[in-house]
Amino acid sequence: MSQRKLNIGLSLGADICWPICYETLLKDLNLNIKLGGETLSFESERITIEPFNLQQPVRYDMVIDRLTHWYSTSREWIKKGILLDDLYVYNNPWSLQSNEKHTSYAAMLRLGLPVPETWMMPPKAYEESEDLQATLRQYARMFSMEDIGNDLGYPFFMKPYHGGGWKGVSKIDNLQEFQEAYDNSGKEVMNLQSAVLPHDWFVRCVGLGPQMRKVNYDPSAPLHDRYTTDIDFLSKEDGSILEDMTATINSFFGWDFNSCEALRRGGIWHPIDFANACPDSQVTSLHYHFPWLIKANLRWSIFCAATGRKMHRTLDWDAFFAIADTDISPREKLSQYAAIAHERFQTEQFREFCQTHLSHLDEVAYDFFASDTMRDAVHQKVVALFPEHEVEDFTELFWSRIQSWRDTEGAAGDAGGF
Ligand SMILES: Nc1ncnc2c1ncn2[C@@H]1O[C@H](COP(=O)(O)OP(=O)(O)O)[C@@H](O)[C@H]1O
Ligand SMILES: [Mg+2]
After folding, report:
1. Which of 191-205, 230-244, 296-310, 404-418 bottoms out in mean pLDDT, i.e. has the lowest?
2. Calpha distance 174→195 (Å, rounded)
3. Helix (H) / strand (E) containing 18
4. Residues 6+ apart with CB under 8 A from 306
């Protein structure tokens, strides 16, 4: 049986805590996976940013990427890797680049998901260019904000069409606030979206490949408390709707790692923010849920590298649209979209792979999350984010939440499942 070492590339930004955990656990797992007549071992390497020849081969078997959205050199390196070297990378970079939040609303409306009524506004101000005045003079139509506000109904949310990090988001209760917010929006192109208020649940469902974690999210809490530590807080059917929605969205857009925010009102889950590829992965936000993320990340990346999973280079939406155009109920449609998603995510094959080759992950992770390396990773992240006088208290807080995960989920394990 031949030996092969697989190299997982980590394309990182300011990340501190999760790569330390990922790298240490990958070593601790000491994998020797027997697959297809080979014995596969694994290493990971942090990818550097430097000039590259387009024909210089990529030396990674897959890449976990967190930079694509923000750094064009990394994004273009990844795109050339997919085109020239058959590289597999988390989150299709073309899709990430082109499918903004607004597009995600349009696409999920097309699939019949209950996205709240959404409008797009032309920007209040423009970058001057040679053709600008001629274009606006001819084609920019005057509009009545009063009519739009009445049509959509108050309250609604105004937010940048590309989204991200709560920047430039405002809740609008009346025409005066609408006018003020629009005047202040400058060159940003804005969406207006009917408010799902009041709602009884706000859930952020994180998807990593076919693995899902539903978090009861409290947007009014300070950053370190927004991911509440509740588990099993939803009925089976509510949980299943959210998982099906997230799987649908992620496979539709070719996103391996994304989160979907949905609000429930009157028994209906309204997705409101689901173009969040590479969502927050820091222990200082996820704390109790952090070990889940690290384990899910290891499972999916090891599976992709070991099986040589092929990138879906084109998005192939017709199968979803064919279901959207049938007469079946919205819930049935969602189940059928999710079935396509699970086929594309190779869910069954992945489950079997985890059971056969990664069943010791539970035990190794259980030990690791109590180790000095883990505690130091928490400490390093806290030092980077918090003022000096808060470092000790917050290190202790996040550490204790991870220990509480160990005492419950960690001790129970998931027997190589997910
Ligand atoms: N349609 C909506 N109904 C109710 N609350 C909303 C709606 N849209 C946004 N919000 C609130 O505003 C916050 C930020 O908006 P969101 O679309 O999530 O943008 P971001 O991409 O910045 O996270 C949400 O977490 C939620 O609290
Ligand atoms: Mg959001």
Report:
1. 404-418
2. 13
3. helix 17-29
4. 6, 33, 35, 40, 353, 357
CB burial readout 191-229, b (16+ within 10 A) else e: bbbbbbeebebbbbbbbbbbbbbbbbbeeeeeebebbee
Q: How far is the CA of 272 from the centre of ligand 1 (A)?
A: 7
Is beta strand 62-65 parallel, antiparallel or unpaired with respect to 118-121?
unpaired
Q: What percent of the chain has pLDDT over 90?
A: 94
Among protein residues, the one whose CA lies closest to atom 27 of ligand 1: 219
Alpha-carbon gap, residue 157 to 149, rounded angstroms: 11
* Stretch among 19-23, 118-122, 278-282, 375-379 having the lowest mean pLDDT: 278-282
Alpha carbon of 361 to ligand 2 centroid (Å): 31
Please, are residues 43 and 96 in contact by the beta-carbon 8 Å criterion? no
Q: Which of 272, 276, 280 to mutate to test the pocket of ligand 1 (most atoms within 8 A of CB)?
A: 272
Q: Indicate the pLDDT class of residue 415, thresholds 50, 70 and 90.
A: low
The answer, yes or no, to whether any atom of ligand 1 lies below 6 A from the CB of 100, is no
Best substitution site from 100, 101, 157 to test ligand 1's pocket, by max atoms within 8 Å of Cβ? Answer: 157
Query: In DSSP terms, which residues pair with 34 in a beta bridge?
Result: 39
Query: What CATH number should be reported for the domain whose range is 2-98?
Result: 3.40.50
Rounded-to-integer distance, Cα 382 and Cα 16, Å: 10
Domain 117-194 has CATH 3.30.1490.20: yes
Per-residue pLDDT at 416 exceeds 60: no
Q: Is 166 in the pocket of ligand 1 (CB under 6 A)?
A: yes
Instruction: Report how far residue 249's alpha carbon sits from residue 326's, in angstroms, rounded to the nearest whole number.
Output: 19
Using the predicted structure, report yes or no on whether residue 67 has a pLDDT greater than 90. Answer: no
What pLDDT is attached to residue 244?
Answer: 98
What is the C-alpha separation between 113 and 106, in angstroms, rounded?
10
Q: Which ligand is nearest to the CA of 202?
A: 1
2-98 with 117-194: one CATH topology?
Answer: no
Q: Is the pLDDT of residue 292 over 90?
A: yes
pTM for the predicted model, two decimal places? 0.96
Pocket lining: 263 vs ligand 1, CB cutoff 6 Å? yes
Q: How far apart are CA 118 and CA 158, in angstroms?
A: 10
Q: Please state the domain extents for the chain.
A: 2-98, 117-194, 201-412
